[in-house]
Input
Amino acid sequence: MTAAINPPRVRGACPGALVPMEVADGLLVRLRIPGGTLPATTARAVADLTRRHGNGLVDLSQRANLQIRGVTNALLGPLLDALRDLGLVNGDPAAERVRNVLCSPTCGLDPECAPVRPLARALDEALANRPDLWTLPAKFSVVLNGGGRAPLADAVGDIRFDALPGTTLFRVAVGGDQDDAATLGACRADAVAETALTLGRAFLDLSAGRHKRLATLVAAEGTAGLARRVPLAPLPTDIALPGSAPHRLLGRQPAWTGVAFPFGGLHADTLATLAHLTPTLRLTPWRALLLEGDGVDADAIHALGGVLAPDDPRLALSACSGRGACDSGLTDARGDALALAQVAPRLLAGGHIHVSACAKGCAHPAPALVILTARGDQAYDVGLLAPAGGAAQWRGVTPARATSLVAALEAVYTHRMRADEDPAALITRLGGPAAVAALVEATVVA
Output
């Protein structure tokens, strides 16, 4: 049976499989994987479909989804039929849109991580079968943070459940990451799914179409209305939640091998080869995969271009898909970003560098230590401690010139840093971006 397909979604919205997004290299088809777990046979099948119906490129998203690129309108229908046979596509576009459930990828592998994967699967299924919740906004999401070695502390969710160490309880909070979300109370594991559904209904009722995210509802009206809808226990006061440690999962671990890919991009052939190294792959929100098992061939992963070392400077880089893959892209953002990794290992050890192929900054909207914003064909504005499209100390420079400026900033930091001083702190101490830009210029000239 052919899957129902909605018209391709406009740019800036949240795509899915049944509601793909039109980008420069074709349709972007996003797969929401329940529990973030792909059996190797399914991964190989997806890789084959990517080659046959797309352009052979796959993205690992920041919400632990898998994206197939370069699909044509003519091949979309057959692709969706095949994905349906694999159990990866829902029957209704509205149901698929609300299946935004992120859970800890190490569940079942890390003994310190609470068992959140079964809860994620149950919630995913419940959302797909509750039409009264299908009008939730497309980016409305639930985070199930099991803690352990790789907690989802930095993941932003409209609704979040954080496992409380040493207990069988979860903190229930809304509208943010672990630190920013507003706490409502605590619930047991067996109440997580129903609590999430109840809060979703409460949001729809209280928001009445005025708000797109729970954070804005809470900012405008507080949490009292939500709290009245959900019976929760008081939150224990003597329990601390673990902070973020995303790169602790990389490399060979007792029950898995963690491998990242620069910017989360890989070829279908790479995905298929990885699926031959493990019985199961786990998707993570850090553009990395976990390969289950304790005997995964590290040399084979290196040969595929995978990153195993948690201190690899490429992990502190971000870049959008760029020219050729995005219709707004003006430059080869990813290629230009990789050139920066070669000249700025110290900066990347203590800060984040982002390259954006247009002024929107989709891949990293927050400020970065160094930001390159494309302003024309092969031209960047370069700024310090700014977001994409923000204040810049250099305007309209070539990629080569931008690389030389970053290399000079690396030299300034190396020679002027104090003990344990990160690059952002050095820029502030030396007088801010304008003052440091002058030092950089002098270093380039020298």
